[in-house]
Write a structure and sequence with these properties.
By secondary structure, this protein is α/β, with parallel strands linked by helices. It contains five helices and five strands; from the N terminus they run αααβαβαβββ. About 35% of the residues lie in helices and about 25% in strands. Strands 2-1-3-4-5 form a five-stranded mixed beta sheet, with helices on one face.
Amino acid sequence: MNPLTTFPLALMTMVLVGCSSTEPAQRTVSRVEVEKTIDLSGRWNDSDSRLVADALINDVFASAWLEQADFSGKIPVVTVGNIRNKTSEHIDVSVFIKDLQKAIVESGKAKFIASKPQRKELRDEKRDQQEFAREETVKEMAAETGADVMLQGQLSSVPDRFEGKTVIFYQMDLEAVDIETGEIVWTGQKKIKKFIEQDKWQW
């Protein structure tokens, strides 16, 4: 065999052997506090969802529109409509909607009604009651609480990558729409910027 080709081949084999390990990869799992912020990939995560929801709900109830609106002396009834994911990431927006719901209920400044799929399921249940339940336990069909305001919004992102470094900018835009008039009575925005640096491979 030609020594000029043998030496590079042997050198490459030594490098690969040196980089490999005979020990199996170890994995450890530990329980952590749910509220603890942990960033592994730098992508949108549960901490971002909770942070943004809390900030926007605090903003919506601190704005002047709430004092100017006429709810007949009662606290407003809120529902959440479509929250669109305009990022390139696969994000379950239902997590953010639940965070919004939690923030609204805990604020004590508004009531929150069930989502459209939930209301449909409840109506199906009441129809069944009309036929199968005892008369004194049947729930009325037209006794729901109507929402005053619907929250709608979208999540967008702008990634910027160069030589192992990434900056991801997230922006959540949320609007409160008066259901009766269709007027946008409030707009809110929360931004998050993340810097991710990936170390080069070390041998």
